[in-house]
Design goal:
Elements lengths: L23 H8 L26 H11 L3 E6 L4 H12 L1 H10 L1 E6 L3 H10 L8 E5 L5 E6 L7 H12 L8 H6 L5 H13 L3 H13 L9 H9 L7 H8 L1 H8 L1 H16 L9 H13 L4 H18 L3 H13 L6 H12 L5 H6 L1 H4 L5
Helix pairs in contact: 1-10, 4-6, 8-9, 12-13, 14-15, 15-16
C-alpha cells in the first residue's frame, strides 16, 4: 500500500503512480535513484533475443519511426554507468521485453554526452538527473513519457509496464500536466510530477507541485526522511516551506542527516533559485536573506559575493539604487587581484547598459580604464 500523508485523500482512480513503491522504504529507494550516476558503453547487440535497437543516427531513427508509424523509445545512457550496463544485459537477452518493444516501438540508444545526445537534450530541454533515463517520443518528436530507472526496476515486469504506460495517453507523463491542473492532490503523484518537471525543465510546475505537496503535510513531518530526499533531489525553490523549515532548524537537520549532506542540499536549492529566470524579480530583501542563508551553511564571504554580485546589482540598477549597485560591484572588484582587459570590458558594458548615473560611473571608472592596459 502506498504511504499516504493524508489518509483522507482519495487515490487517483485511473492513474497508476509511476513511483514503484508500496512502502516508505521503497519510496525512499526510488527517490534515491535521482542521484544515481551520470557516468558503460551501450555496445552493439550480441544476441537476437532482446530489443533490436536501430543502428544509425537519431534523426534516421525518427525518420524510420515515421515510416513505421510507431513511437520511438530512446534510452539515454552514459559511458561508465553500471546501471546502464545492467539494463543493456536485460535489453539484449530478454525475449519478452524484446518482442514487446520491437512490436510497439522503434528503439534507439543515445549516449548522454555525445554530440548527438547533447544537441537532442538541448533541443528538448531535457535535464538528465541520472542514467539510464527512459524516454518515449511520438513519430513527430513530441515527448510522450519520461522516467528514470535503476537496478530495482531492471526486470521484465517493470519494463513491460513502463512501455505500456508510454503507449497509454491516460498514463504517460505527457498527460500529467492536465491531471495536475485539474487539482490532483495525491502526494505520490505530486512527487513524481514535480520530479518529471525537473527533468523537462518546467520549473514553474515543479515549484507549484511541491508547494501543493507541502500544503498536505503537517509541520511535524517536514523533516521526515522522504522530505529530506525531496530537498536533495526534487525541490528547486528556496521559498518552498520545506526549505524554509530546513534553514530555520539547520542544526536539527545536520544532526539527523549530517552537516555535509544538509549543507549541500541547501546550497543547491539556493543556487537553483539564484540562477533561475525568477531572480531578476527578486526583492533586495530576498538577496539579503539569501546571503544570510549562505553564511549559515558556511559559504565563504568572497564566494557569496561572486555568486550574488551581478544578479543583485542588476536588480539594484533596475529599481533605482544605482549608487548602491556600483558600490556592490566596486567592493567585489577590489577583492580581485587581477582584472584583465576582457573582464574590464564586460563590466563596463554591463554597467553602462544599466545606468547613466554619473556618480555610479565615476566610482567604477578605475575598472573601466583597465580595458586599456
Amino acid at each position: 500500500m502506498l504511504p499516504k500523508y493524508n489518509q483522507t485523500l482519495k487515490p487517483v482512480p485511473t492513474f497508476t503512480i509511476p513511483l514503484m513503491v508500496c512502502s516508505m522504504k521503497k519510496i525512499l529507494a526510488s527517490l534515491l535513484l535521482l542521484g544515481l550516476c551520470l557516468p558503460l558503453v551501450a555496445q552493439q547487440k550480441t544476441t537476437p533475443q532482446g530489443i533490436h535497437f536501430f543502428k544509425g543516427s537519431l534523426k534516421e531513427a525518427f525518420a524510420f519511426a515515421q515510416k513505421q508509424n510507431k513511437p520511438l523509445f530512446v534510452e539515454i545512457y552514459a559511458i561508465g554507468c553500471h546501471h546502464c550496463e545492467n539494463f543493456k544485459k536485460t535489453f539484449d537477452s530478454n525475449a519478452a521485453i524484446g518482442d514487446f518493444y520491437d512490436k510497439n516501438f522503434v528503439n534507439y540508444q543515445l549516449e548522454v554526452n555525445s554530440a548527438e545526445g547533447m544537441k537532442f537534450r538541448e533541443k528538448h530541454n531535457i535535464y538528465v538527473v541520472s542514467t539510464p533515463l527512459m524516454t518515449f517520443w511520438d513519430k513527430n518528436e513530441n515527448l510522450l513519457h519520461i522516467q528514470t530507472a535503476g537496478d530495482e526496476q531492471n526486470n521484465q515486469a517493470y519494463l513491460l509496464a513502463m512501455g505500456r504506460k508510454a503507449l497509454d495517453p491516460q498514463q504517460q507523463s505527457a498527460a500529467w500536466k492536465k491531471l495536475f491542473q485539474a487539482g490532483e492532490q495525491d502526494p505520490n503523484f505530486l512527487i513524481e510530477y514535480a520530479y518529471t518537471c525537473r527533468m523537462i525543465c518546467d520549473t514553474v510546475d515543479n515549484i507549484a507541485a511541491m508547494n501543493r505537496y507541502v500544503s498536505l503535510l503537517t509541520p511535524e513531518r517536514y523533516n521526515d526522511a522522504i522530505n529530506f530526499v525531496l530537498l536533495q533531489k526534487v525541490i528547486m525553490d528556496d521559498d518552498n516551506p520545506l526549505f524554509l523549515h530546513l534553514m530555520q532548524n539547520l542544526v536539527v537537520y545536520q544532526q539527523k542527516y549530517g552537516s555535509e549532506v544538509v549543507n549541500s542540499a541547501a546550497e543547491n536549492i539556493m543556487m537553483y533559485s539564484l540562477f533561475s529566470s525568477r531572480s531578476p524579480r527578486f526583492s533586495l530583501e530576498k538577496f539579503q536573506q539569501m546571503r544570510q542563508n549562505l553564511r549559515k551553511i558556511g559559504i565563504p564571504e568572497k564566494s557569496i559575493q561572486a555568486r550574488l554580485v551581478w544578479i543583485e546589482s542588476a536588480v539594484m540598477f533596475r529599481t533605482g539604487h544605482e549608487l548602491e549597485a556600483a558600490q556592490l560591484i566596486n567592493s567585489f572588484c577590489k577583492g580581485i587581484s587581477d582584472i584583465n582587459k576582457q573582464d574590464a570590458t564586460y563590466i563596463e558594458s554591463f554597467v553602462k547598459n544599466k545606468t547613466q548615473n554619473q556618480e555610479a560611473l565615476a566610482l567604477l571608472d578605475w575598472i573601466f580604464k583597465l580595458k586599456n592596459k
